[in-house]
Design a protein that fits this description.
15 strands, about 475 residues, alpha+beta
Length: about 475
C-alpha cells in the first residue's frame, strides 16, 4: 500500500524546528574490553526496533571509544551499536552529557562502571540487580527440570516465587526513590501495573472481565505523556502496540476510541514531540492495518488530527497528500455503496456494476502483466468455481491497463471467461482516484446491494471472509454476539 502518512524520521525536521539543544555539547568516553575494532554508532531509540544514529566513532585496538559533539544530544535512551549494527549496550542521556563508562564483553552489564553520570549509575545499578534476580530464577528453574519430584518442585517453586516478590519490591522501591530521575521514569514505564484482586462473579469465580477493564483503564498509569524524553525509548511503541492490538477490539469504533484516548493523553501532557509521535504512529498503524475496514479509522484520525491542524506539521505537501488520500477513501469505506463503474466487455457490450445480479460481487482491479495479479488468479478462479452457485458469487474483473490484446490474452490463458470482464475503452476512468487502485490486484467484496463489505482482501482469504461475514449475520439475527474473528 502506498503510504501517505510518511515516516516519522522524514517529518522530524518539520515538526521540531526548535528541538536542537545549544548547551556545551557532549563527550562520552568509553572503554569496552574484548570488543572488535571498527566503527561504532551512538543512536537513540525511536520505537522498539528503530533508532536514529547521532554519532559514530572508531574503537581503537585497546578498546577506547569517544563520542563527541558540539551540540547536546536529545535526551532519551541510547544504544551503542557495534560495526555489524548490533546492540552492545544502552546508555541514558539526560543533562549530564560529559561522562565515561568502562566494561568488557565478558559481562557488559555486570562489569559496567560509570563516572560522571548519575543517570547511568542508577541505570546500571538497577540492571545489575535485576540481572542477579533473573540469574537466580534461571538457576532454580534449571534445577526444577532435574529435580522434578513433587517435594523439590514445591520447594523450588516457593524459592522462585520469593525471588519474584523480592524483584517486585526492589522495583517499587527503586522507582519511588528515583521518581525524579529519567532512569526512574524509564524503569517505571517499562513495567506492568500492579493488578488488584478482582471481585467474585455470582458463581464464585474471579471476574476476569472486571480485571480486563481495570487493566485497560490503568494501562498507562506508569507512563508520563508530559515527558518527551520517553519518545526516544523502546517503551512507547511497545505500549501503543499492546494497547491497540491486545486491549482494543479490532473494529473501527473501538480502534477510533482507543486512538483518541491515547492522543488525548498526549495532548494533555503538552509535549509537542510526544503528541506528534502518538498521532503519527496511530494514524500510520490504521493506514497500514490488515484488519478489514480499518481505513475508516485512518480517515477519522487523518481528518481530525492532520487536516484539523492538531498535528504539529507545517509541510503543505504532506497535508495536501493526506487530504487527497482522504478524499479518495471516503466513498470507498466499508459500509458505503460502491461508486458507479461501467466497462466494456470482450463482446463490446457496456456492462454496469449496478446491473449485476448476485448475492456477492467480487470486483477485481488488475493488470494482466502484473506478477502478483497472475499469482492471485488461480486462487480467485478456485474461489469462484466453488462459490458461484453455492453462494451466488459473481466476479467483475476490471483491467486497468491500456492494452486490449494483453487483456484478452490473460482471459484465455487463465480460463476465466465465465467472469464478467471489463475494459475502459474510453480511457476516461482514473482508477487510482476513483477506486484507490494504487497496487494490483485490488479486490472489493460487495453484497447484493453493492454495499462494500471488504476491500484489499487477498484472493486466498475470500472464502474465510465470507464464512466470517455469514456467521456474523447469523449471530446478529439470533441477537447474540458472534465469536468469529477475522484479521
Amino acid at each position: 500500500m502506498h503510504k501517505f502518512i510518511v515516516s516519522f524520521l522524514t517529518l522530524l525536521a518539520v515538526w521540531l524546528p526548535g528541538a536542537a539543544q545549544t548547551s556545551p555539547g557532549y563527550v562520552i568516553n568509553g572503554r569496552i574490553g574484548g570488543a572488535a575494532a571498527g566503527n561504532y554508532a551512538l543512536a537513540h531509540y525511536f520505537g522498539h526496533a528503530q533508532y536514529i544514529t547521532k554519532d559514530t566513532a572508531q574503537l581503537t585496538p585497546d578498546g577506547v571509544l569517544v563520542f563527541e559533539g558540539k551540540t547536546a544530544l536529545p535526551k532519551g535512551m541510547y544504544l551503542v551499536l557495534n560495526p555489524k549494527k548490533q546492540k552492545m549496550l544502552e546508555l541514558v542521556i539526560d543533562d549530564e552529557q560529559h561522562f565515561s563508562f568502562q566494561t568488557d564483553t565478558i559481562s557488559l552489564i555486570g562489569n559496567m562502571k560509570i563516572v560522571g553520570s548519575r543517570e547511568n549509575e542508577l541505570f546500571y545499578i538497577y540492571q545489575k540487580q535485576f540481572k542477579t534476580y533473573a540469574d537466580e530464577i534461571g538457576a532454580l528453574q534449571l534445577q526444577a527440570k532435574v529435580r522434578n519430584d513433587n517435594i523439590n518442585r514445591q520447594l523450588l517453586g516457593n524459592k522462585i516465587a520469593l525471588i519474584r516478590r523480592e524483584t517486585n519490591d526492589y522495583f517499587q522501591d527503586f522507582i519511588q526513590q528515583n521518581a525524579a530521575s529519567l532512569t526512574g521514569k524509564l524503569i517505571k514505564a517499562s513495567n506492568e501495573i500492579a493488578l488488584p484482586t478482582p471481585p467474585k462473579r455470582p458463581d464464585g469465580r474471579p471476574d476476569s472481565a472486571w480485571l480486563f477493564r481495570y487493566y485497560k483503564a490503568h494501562f498507562w498509569d506508569n507512563f508520563d505523556f508530559a515527558d518527551e524524553r520517553l519518545v526516544r525509548t523502546p517503551f512507547l511503541q511497545r505500549k501503543l502496540d499492546r494497547y491497540m492490538d491486545n486491549l482494543t477490539y479490532q473494529v473501527t469504533d473501538s480502534v477510533v476510541a482507543s486512538s483518541d484516548a491515547v492522543i488525548g493523553m498526549s495532548l494533555a501532557g503538552n509535549s509537542r514531540e510526544m503528541k506528534a509521535y502518538c498521532i503519527w504512529y496511530l494514524t500510520s498503524k490504521c493506514e497500514n492495518s490488515e484488519v478489514v475496514g480499518m481505513e475508516a479509522a485512518f480517515v477519522h484520525l487523518a481528518e481530525k488530527y492532520y487536516l484539523g491542524g492538531i498535528m504539529p506539521i507545517n509541510d503543505p505537501s504532506t497535508v495536501q497528500n493526506i487530504r487527497e488520500k482522504v478524499k479518495v477513501l471516503k466513498p470507498l469505506l466499508v459500509g458505503k455503496t460502491m461508486p458507479a463503474l461501467a466497462l466494456t466487455d470482450t463482446a463490446g457490450v457496456l456492462r454496469n456494476l449496478a446491473d449485476l445480479k448476485a448475492n456477492y460481487t467480487i470486483v477485481v482491479f488488475y493488470d494482466p502483466d502484473c506478477g502478483h495479479c497472475r499469482e492471485a488468479t488461480p486462487a480467485l478462479k478456485e474461489f469462484y468455481d466453488k462459490n458461484k452457485t453455492k453462494r451466488g458469487v459473481e466476479i467483475l474483473a476490471a483491467s486497468v491497463t491500456r492494452s486490449p490484446e494483453q487483456w484478452k490474452k490473460y482471459i484465455r490463458q487463465f480460463g476465466v471467461g465465465e467472469w464478467v470482464h471489463g475494459y475502459d475503452l474510453s480511457f476516461q476512468i482514473e482508477f487510482r482516484k476513483a477506486f484507490d487502485v494504487v497496487t494490483t490486484p485490488l479486490i472489493y467484496v460487495l453484497d447484493q446491494n453493492k454495499t462494500i463489505l471488504a476491500r484489499r482482501l487477498p484472493a486466498n482469504q475470500l472464502e474465510d471472509f465470507l464464512d466470517f461475514h455469514e456467521a456474523r449475520l447469523k449471530a446478529m439475527a439470533q441477537n447474540k454476539p458472534s465469536s468469529a474473528k477475522l484479521k
